[in-house]
Amino acid sequence: MHDILTQLERFRVIPVVALQAAESANALGDALRAGGLPCAEVTFRTASAAAIIKTLAARGDLLVGAGTVLKVDQVKAAVDGGAAFIVAPGFNPKVVSYCVAQGIPVTPGVCTPTEIEMALDHGLEVLKFFPAETFGGLKALKALSAPYGQVRFIPTGGITAENLPAYLAFPKVLACGGSWMVAGDLLQAGRFEEVTRLTRLAVKAAQSANGAA
């Protein structure tokens, strides 16, 4: 588990993918690799999610996780397909308990102290802050995280190229999840060269934030 979190911390940015066409999975993987970010959180927001996870994970050159995981059955499907980590939008005790029992890295979504303490009770110390901007952004995260010195966060929801550096400069942020470099309209149009360009910019922004931190 710690090895996966270390890799995510090294990447600092996690592309959050909702890809409709499974046959485009390798083109997406190539684009992310070319952009310098060999990582993807494939969300269960499309019927093709399990197939896409399997295709990307089989490449062996990407760290692939599953997002928008709402049920234990989705955890099983994702892990069977090669997913290395699980991300959930909220704190579902069944999903979290299953992942912890199986030794599967999981970052459930939280936005209240109660949810953070539920996660701590399950032995988790890296959590998704979601939806980040809607729930007050970096200012809210700083206030929310203050009593929990051991907890680090992966803010997701409303993260953009513009606000990414500020989030990453906060020491309690391990990484940020974002979809701007893999936006649905780009994927649907097959504009993978633009995915690569935006990914490179995201990596550059993350490196700048690391230097400023």
Give a description of the structure:
The protein is α/β, with parallel strands linked by helices. The chain has one domain (2-206): Aldolase class I (TIM Barrel, Alpha-Beta Barrel). It is 47% helix and 15% strand. It has helices at 2-11, 25-34, 49-59, 72-80, 93-102, 113-121, 137-145, 164-169, 184-189, 192-212, and strands spanning 13-17, 39-43, 63-67, 85-87, 106-107, 109-110, 126-129, 152-155, 176-178. The strands form two sheets. The chain has a six-stranded parallel beta sheet. Strands 6-7-8 form a three-stranded parallel beta sheet. It is globular. The protein starts with a helix and ends with a helix.
Beta content comes to: 15-25%
Q: Into which percent range does the helicity of residues fall?
A: 40-55%
**CATH class (first level) name:** Alpha Beta
What do the pLDDT scores average to?
Answer: 96
Number of domains: 1
Structural class: alpha/beta
Could you give the order of the helices and strands? Answer: HEHEHEHEHEEHEHEHEHH
CATH architecture: Alpha-Beta Barrel
CATH fold descriptor: TIM Barrel
N- and C-termini, Cα separation: 25 Å
- How many helix segments? 10
User: How big is the Rg?
Assistant: 16 Å
Corresponding CATH superfamily: Aldolase class I
Largest sheet: 6 strands, parallel
Strand line-up in the sheet with most strands: 5-4-3-2-1-9
Q: Point out poorly predicted stretches.
A: none
The tally of beta strands, per DSSP, is: 9
The general outline is globular
